[in-house]
Amino acid sequence: MFIMAATGSAVGLGNIWKFPYITGENGGGAFVLVYLVCILLLGIPVMVAEVMLGRRGRQSPISTMRQLTSEAGLHGFWNSIGWLGVIAGLFILSFYSVIAGWALAYIPEMGKGTFQGVDPIESQLFFDTLLADKARLIGWQSLFMLMTVGVVTCGVVRGLGAAVRILMPLLFVLLLAMLVFAYREGDFAAAIKFLFWPDFSALTGRSILEALGHSFFTLSLGMGSIMAYGAYMPVGTSIGKTVLTIALLDVVVALMAGMAIFPIVFAHPGINPAAGPELLFVSLPVVFGAMPGGLAVGMLFFILVTIAAWSSAISLIEPAVAWLIEKRGFNRFTANIVLGFIAWTLGIGTVLSFNDWAGFTLGDFTFFGAMDFLTSRIMLPLTGLFVAIFVGWVMPRATPQSELDGEDSLMFSLWLWVLRYICPPAIGVVLLVGLYDTFTAAG
Ligand code: TRP
After folding, report:
1. Residue from 244, 221, 233, 218 nearest 411 by CA
2. Ligand 1, pocket-test mutation among 84, 96, 217, most atoms within 8 A of CB
3. CATH number for the domain including 97?
4. How far away, in angstroms, is 398 Cα from ligand 1 center?
5. Residue 13 Cα: closest atom of ligand 1
6. Does the beta carbon of 315 sit less than 6 angstroms from any atom of ligand 1?
7. Is 92 in the pocket of ligand 1 (CB under 6 A)?
8. What are phi and psi of 277, to 5 degrees?
9. For residue 327, what are the domain limits?
10. Nearest Cα to Cα of residue 260 among 189, 193, 177, 198
11. Which ligand 1 atom is the nearest neighbour of the CA of 222?
12. What are the backbone dihedrals phi and psi of residue 228, each rounded to the nearest 5 degrees, phi first?
């Protein structure tokens, strides 16, 4: 249950949509390398810590943190970190549902054959038309939000977990098939070179920060998703091995998405690898339009992307729902409606940032850009920093020691050392530069 739920949460738009596009924007190989290092040195240790806290507390993340911080004798101020998680979840969900809406919109288009035989220019034109159509975007965004709120309201999170168990392997197989197609029809060599040949001259300080932020985003860290699911983990299962499995699956899906997309990008000079959020939606339809059986494969692909996004979206709202129920006396239905409505309203800002408000920027950011930046670069790292310091320095050492009892003792010492000495300064730097950027961008 825990592995399925956590993998369902981790694998989502972050892997299939965001990873390829930020890799394209940040120049490829060197960025991928830094991202992998961040997963290994920061993401995995923080994930182990979050799962451990969740399993220890066995409540909603906010209550767990409240209990554990007061046990450790900390000031009540530290509870506010739970709030930050709730807000981060709503912010992420707000733009997440808009992007997932794009995937939804593509399902019927694929089926209708809109993309049969299109070239990149036509594909781009289709996408631009969709983006300009606010009503359509809001319609799909609303549908996705209803799907999310619906599942959480019915409490069938486990039901979806079971579905994910079948569909994730299917997504995997499909990505593999697309990879084979990209290998035969696209410029595979150029793509592999772009993704795996580190060209450090393309790497800027900002790219490093982006890689770190994304390593938290893609593993669902820094807002309680993983902590909430940790509460379901049976005592006696190895947290270390489970976390490694989830992280590995997550990385593999992201790299496969990259290897399916970039060969196509490089085979068509009309597609810019640094195109940004539209990369997936412009490049892949060209593939589906050209491949035999592309109509069905394309439909299936966007259905699977939607489902991957769905199981992630649930984990974005569930901690906040649990908290409203536990502490504010809401029932499940009202809690969901209230939170879903807030995220939906914020999401309108993201919809508009691709059309009416495209020219309206806060410094360097559109509304969507600001939401993305605030969450990945500030809120998630802030919570992650707190978790690292709390588990590494504040909590009595006996707690992690007993929770991680079955683990290899060398790995345990290594983990604790990284959590104490590597994570806080590294995450701290990201945070400081992130704050600096916010103020300079706003000013
Ligand atoms: N990890 C998911 C993805 O890559 C998104 C996600 C779900 C998330 N829950 C989260 C991101 C919690 C940050 C925090 O698509």
Report:
1. 244
2. 217
3. 1.20.1740
4. 30
5. 15
6. yes
7. yes
8. -55, -20
9. 2-442
10. 177
11. 14
12. -60, -40
What's the 93 CA to ligand 1 centre distance in angstroms? 9
Instruction: Judge if the beta carbon of residue 383 lies within 6 A of ligand 1.
Output: no
The number of domains in the chain is 1
Which residues partner with 362 through β-bridges?
Answer: 365
> Does ligand 1 lie within 6 Å of residue 15's CB atom?
yes
Does ligand 1 have an atom closer than 6 angstroms to the CB of 223? yes
The verdict on the CB of residue 10 being under 6 Å from ligand 1 is yes
> Distance from the CA of 417 to the center of ligand 1, in angstroms?
26
DSSP state string for 188-245: HHHHHHHHHS--GGG--HHHHHHHHHHHHHHTT-SSSHHHHHHTTPPTTS-HHHHHHH
d(CA 33, CA 23): 10
pTM of the model: 0.93
pLDDT by residue, tens only, the chain of 443 residues: 788 888 889 999 999 999 999 999 999 999 999 999 999 999 999 999 999 999 988 888 888 888 888 888 877 777 777 788 889 999 999 999 999 999 999 999 999 999 998 988 999 999 999 999 999 999 999 999 999 998 888 775 666 666 677 778 888 888 898 888 888 888 999 999 999 999 888 888 888 889 999 999 999 999 888 988 888 888 888 999 999 999 999 999 999 999 999 998 998 888 889 988 999 999 889 888 888 888 888 998 999 899 899 989 999 998 888 888 887 888 888 999 999 999 999 999 999 999 988 887 777 789 999 999 999 988 999 999 999 999 999 888 888 888 888 888 899 999 999 999 999 999 998 888 878 877 776 55
